[in-house]
Amino acid sequence: MIKLQKSTFNEIEHIFVSSCNRRYFSNNFEKKYRNCAQCEFYEIINYNLIVGGLILHDYDEYSNRIMFTIAISEEQQNKGIGKMTMKRILDYIFKDRKIRRIYIEVYETNERAIKLYEEFGFIKEGRLRKHTYKNGDYIDLFIMGLLKEEYMRKFYTGR
Predict the structure, then answer these.
(1) Which is higher by pLDDT, 142 or 31?
(2) Which of 17, 61, 125, 136 is the most buried (most CB within 10 A)?
(3) What are the N-acetyltransferase domain coordinates in residue numbering (predicted)?
(4) How many angstroms from the chain centroid is the CA of residue 95?
(5) Which architecture does CATH list for 2-157?
(6) Distances (CA, A) of 30 to 26, 54, 65, 69
């Protein structure tokens, strides 16, 4: 049973550090999120074990959109946790928060994540070519988005 529990950057930092190299984390991720006043941090908990972290950020109240970043600890991957977490967070965003649009950035090399997002209806909306230096190479970054009506139609009306 997946549960999202409000947290702080410090409490979920180790999950994100393990999902990328330390240098990348320090130069990019940490600078963006450590002191982010508008970010919402969550621990992803499965049967009382912290298995991942999630950050809601870049909320634009006027346009009613939000972005999220997610990491599942390496030893907890391939267990369906990502899929259960996606359902939980998308229901929260679209049904409880009544947000109109959600989007995410994902590396082209993260094929499992791209497949998961597409299963939930996310569409590749953009590609930033050779955008990020990771593991000795420059890689592309996809921007993927999902609209509330697309999600509700797919998961709640059956059309």
Answers:
(1) 142
(2) 17
(3) 2-149
(4) 18
(5) 3-Layer(aba) Sandwich (3.40)
(6) 5, 14, 23, 13
Q: What is the pLDDT of residue 107?
A: 92
Tokens of 111: 């094929």
59: enclosing H helix or E strand: strand 49-60
Buried b (16+ CB within 10 A) or exposed e, 66-92: bbbbbbbbeebeeeebbebbbebbbee
- Distance, in Å, from the CA atom of 138 to the CA atom of 131, rounded to the nearest integer, reads 6
The CA distances from residue 94 to 19, 56, 65, 72, 151, in Å, are 27, 13, 10, 22, 8
Give the domain ranges of the chain.
2-157
pLDDT digits 0-9 by tens, 122-153: 999 999 999 988 888 999 999 999 999 999 99
The answer to whether residue 89 scores a pLDDT higher than 80 is: yes
- Using a pLDDT cut of 70, give the percent of the chain over it: 92
